[in-house]
Design brief:
26% of the residues lie in helices and 35% in strands. It is α+β, with helices and mostly antiparallel strands. A hairpin with a 2-residue loop joins strand 4 and strand 5.
């Protein structure tokens, strides 16, 4: 089982980095999660990926999403895109899931 990073990625970290750059599976502040959810209409995280990540992390998501703007194309399928993705857990933690496929692309 993959462990979540213990250090929470904060707004101050984001400002210091100059761009949003949390580590994979790092907890982020609620404000970051909320801003990423609201910045553009979110896309649903690919369902199969959501289940795999829940099992890998040993947590249950109550919400997951991909930021509504593609970050890059998928090397495995150049006609698909990858999006910065996040989840909220039952424990009310907000997790950065890395670059993932959405259930569908715009």
């Amino acid at each position: 089982m993959t462990k979540l990073s213990k250090k929470i990625y904060t707004i101050a970290d984001w400002k210091k980095d100059g761009e949003l750059n949390p580590q994979l599976f790092q907890e982020v502040e609620h404000e970051i999660y909320s801003e990423m959810y609201c910045v553009l209409p979110p896309l649903p995280l690919e369902q199969v990926t959501e289940k795999i990540l829940e099992n890998q992390l040993g947590v249950k998501f109550i919400q997951s999403f991909c930021v509504g703007e593609a970050y890059t194309t998928d090397d495995d399928d150049p006609e698909r895109y990858l999006y910065k993705s996040f989840a909220k857990t039952e424990e009310n933690k907000f997790i950065y899931l890395g670059l993932r496929r959405a259930e569908y692309d715009y």
